[in-house]
């Protein structure tokens, strides 16, 4: 039981000992196991991002459907269709358009919207900030609450508090975001009149007013993510609690709180961090529906509007950004998991 | 197994699922009015002439709810069945063949799972025409990635068992091994997953319809009905919440039934949960 805890305490110590004990001919992997592991994980994400960009651009290209025809309607003359194809650059081969697009994306230029002819990057800049602000506020509330409730649930396992939390969270998982959202609007926005609806935010809005505007969307997101995060936290801690060294601690007569705080929590850290990061990734997606419900000027709303008018540059840009955030958060989850778990630091 | 051995939660779940299925099956006989028949003023209150009131253009909300059950359940069920057929077939093939087909399928699956489902669906639906069978297909393909991951994990465990080895030695082909050796043994964990994926399909379809990208009007489906009636919320009219609540109740019911079934099968295996 001492082994994993000792490993945890020495953060970078693990690498140092590995370097001292290793002979001069040992490979890079043996000398810096952690760095190699992290490097591999980051390279994997970079590859994944490239593949996703390919899929979002070329995959969509391969699907049936002619944008120019849809754009002009069925009655368009072939000449008009050809003109619009030339204007949007659709007459170029797909691969060269992909390379142009990717080059633009790397410079922060997502091209021009087909519907409004405005620069997509300018439109996204402000909205991405709004979306991240919303997700950030929700995370600040949801993460401590979920981890706390999860620990409480383990402490009172199979007793009333645990069962109560369990039933509530099962219900909360099954609720669609839009139902929770409209319910909150009806109660707190219309009947009680505590907050304003729709949740409009604009540039230069005072911070207090901004916080008040996002109160309901944040509450909705928290409710949706909380249950999931809490159940996963509970499962992660319970998994650790069934280990032999916990039984030893129990048999030694340690108190329940001491066992959880000193023996279970350090080893449950990696899975919990994983749970949190996964749910943050989920949060970024949940934002789409919540933004539409609350008419909040963020990325999600922008993307849904673009999808309904088939404004592909906007759809691809938003899709790529959402997917990147998701991939990066997953990568952060894995990296933190590797850092927090001594057994992953020294692969046998 | 007697009726008294079933816990209360499971009874509630069974009742909820049963009610929804009856509505879906007998919609034209149960509904007091037609699916898109305009029968009264807009947003008439609950009670009175119309049990649940009327919607944003004066259609009977109860009738729309009953027809909506039919559309929602049919599309979600079709998508789940298709995703399971696709997911299990591909995952079992990968697990049995190993080598490069396994690598190719697994890496493709990882790639598809690295994009959030809703975002993926939005990108794809932006291009494809809005038809019901395309919607079912998109939902099924996206969902099959989750089935593939589970199915492969289960099948890899089974594929190394002695009876599979014996089947190989007596010269059975891949198809036999997949359908006669692996499928029967993988059925239990897959069935529990089926319930969960079905509940998820209902939520996902409702979300897409709510965003205006799922079932197209005038056909009724629960997510689309929330969208139709959402403007009433500002005037304090709760019509949008009724279909929303129906979605919630149905998914909770399915979860309750699945919970009970998986507990039961777990206890049959000596309490392994």
UniProtKB/TrEMBL annotation, chain A:
GO biological process annotation, one example: transmembrane transport
Coiled-coil ranges (or none): none
Annotated membrane topology: Multi-pass membrane protein
ABC transmembrane type-1 domain location: 128-333
Localisation: Cell membrane
UniProt xrefs under SUPFAM superfamilies: MetI-like
Key words of the record: Cell membrane, Membrane, Transmembrane, Transmembrane helix, Transport
InterPro entries found in the cross-reference section: BPD_transp_1_N (IPR045621), MetI-like (IPR000515), MetI-like_sf (IPR035906)
GO cellular component, one term: plasma membrane
Pfam families found in the cross-reference section: BPD_transp_1 (PF00528), BPD_transp_1_N (PF19300)
Residue spans crossing the bilayer: 34-58, 132-155, 167-195, 207-227, 268-294, 314-340
Family, as annotated: Belongs to the binding-protein-dependent transport system permease family.
Protein name listed in UniProt: Peptide/nickel transport system permease protein
Taxonomic path: Bacteria, Pseudomonadati, Pseudomonadota, Alphaproteobacteria, Rhodobacterales
UniProtKB/TrEMBL annotation, chain B:
Localization annotation: Cell membrane
Pfam families tied to this protein: BPD_transp_1 (PF00528)
GO cellular component: plasma membrane
Highest rank taxon of the organism: Bacteria
Keyword Ligase tagged: no
Listed GO biological process terms: transmembrane transport
Annotated Gene3D superfamilies: MetI-like
Listed transmembrane segments: 6-30, 73-97, 117-142, 194-213, 233-258
Keywords linked to the UniProt accession: Cell membrane, Membrane, Transmembrane, Transmembrane helix, Transport
ABC transmembrane type-1 domain segment(s): 69-258
Membrane topology listed for this record: Multi-pass membrane protein
Predominant location category: membrane
Keyword GTP-binding: no
Protein family per UniProt: Belongs to the binding-protein-dependent transport system permease family.
Name of this protein: Peptide/nickel transport system permease protein
């Amino acid at each position: 039981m001492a082994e994993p805890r000792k490993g945890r305490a020495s953060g970078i110590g693990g690498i140092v000992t590995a370097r001292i004990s290793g002979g001069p001919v040992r490979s890079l992997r043996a000398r810096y196991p952690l760095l190699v592991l992290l490097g591999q994980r980051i390279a994997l994400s970079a590859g994944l991002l490239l593949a996703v960009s390919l899929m979002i651009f070329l995959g969509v290209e391969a699907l049936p459907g002619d944008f120019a025809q849809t754009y002009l309607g069925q009655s368009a003359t072939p000449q008009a269709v050809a003109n619009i194809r030339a204007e949007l650059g659709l007459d170029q081969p797909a691969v060269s358009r992909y390379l142009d697009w990717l080059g633009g994306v790397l410079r922060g230029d997502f091209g021009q919207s087909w519907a409004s002819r405005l620069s997509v990057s300018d439109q996204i800049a402000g909205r991405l900030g709004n979306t991240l602000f919303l997700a950030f506020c929700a995370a600040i509330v949801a993460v401590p609450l979920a981890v706390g409730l999860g620990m409480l649930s383990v402490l009172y396992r199979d007793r009333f508090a645990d069962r109560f939390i369990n039933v509530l969270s099962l219900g909360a998982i099954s609720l669609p975001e839009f139902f929770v959202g409209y319910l909150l609007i009806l109660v707190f926005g219309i009947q009680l009149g505590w907050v304003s609806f729709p949740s409009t935010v604009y540039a230069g809005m005072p911070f207090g007013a901004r916080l008040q505007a996002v109160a309901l969307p944040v509450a909705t997101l928290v409710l949706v993510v909380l249950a999931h995060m809490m159940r996963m936290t509970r499962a992660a801690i319970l998994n650790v609690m069934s280990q032999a060294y916990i039984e030893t601690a129990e048999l030694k007569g340690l108190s329940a709180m001491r066992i959880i705080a000193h023996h279970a929590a350090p080893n449950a850290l990696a899975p919990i961090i994983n749970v949190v990061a996964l749910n943050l990734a989920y949060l970024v997606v949940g934002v789409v529906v919540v933004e539409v419900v609350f008419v909040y000027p963020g990325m999600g709303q922008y993307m849904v509007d673009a999808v309904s008018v088939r404004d592909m540059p906007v759809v691809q840009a938003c899709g790529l950004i959402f997917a990147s955030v998701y991939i990066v958060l997953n990568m952060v989850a894995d990296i933190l998991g590797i850092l927090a778990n001594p057994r992953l630091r020294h692969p046998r | 197994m007697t009726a008294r051995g079933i816990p209360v939660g499971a009874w509630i779940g069974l009742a909820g699922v049963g009610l929804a299925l009856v509505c879906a099956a007998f919609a034209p006989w149960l509904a007091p009015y037609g699916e898109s028949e305009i029968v009264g003023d807009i947003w008439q209150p609950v009670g009175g002439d119309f049990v649940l009131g009327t919607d944003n253009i004066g259609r009977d909300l109860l009738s729309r709810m009953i027809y909506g059950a039919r559309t929602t359940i049919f599309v979600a069920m079709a998508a789940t069945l298709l995703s399971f057929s696709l997911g299990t077939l591909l995952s079992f093939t990968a697990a049995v063949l190993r080598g490069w087909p396994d690598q190719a399928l697994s890496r493709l699956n990882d790639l598809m799972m690295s994009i959030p489902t809703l975002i993926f669906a939005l990108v794809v639906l932006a291009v494809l025409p809005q038809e019901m069978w395309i919607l079912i297909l998109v939902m099924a393909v996206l969902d099959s990635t989750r089935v593939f991951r589970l199915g492969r994990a289960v099948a890899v465990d089974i594929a190394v068992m002695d009876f599979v080895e014996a089947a190989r030695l007596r010269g059975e082909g891949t198809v036999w091994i997949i359908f006669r050796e692996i499928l029967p043994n993988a059925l239990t964990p897959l069935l529990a997953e089926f319930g969960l994926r079905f509940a998820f399909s209902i939520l996902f379809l409702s979300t897409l319809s709510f965003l205006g990208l799922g079932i197209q009007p005038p056909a009724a489906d629960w997510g689309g009905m929330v969208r139709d009636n959402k403007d009433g919320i500002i005037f304090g009219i709760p019509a949008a919440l009724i279909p929303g609540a129906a979605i919630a109740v149905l998914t909770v019911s399915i979860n309750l039934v699945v919970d009970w079934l998986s507990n039961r099968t777990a206890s049959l295996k000596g309490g392994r949960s």
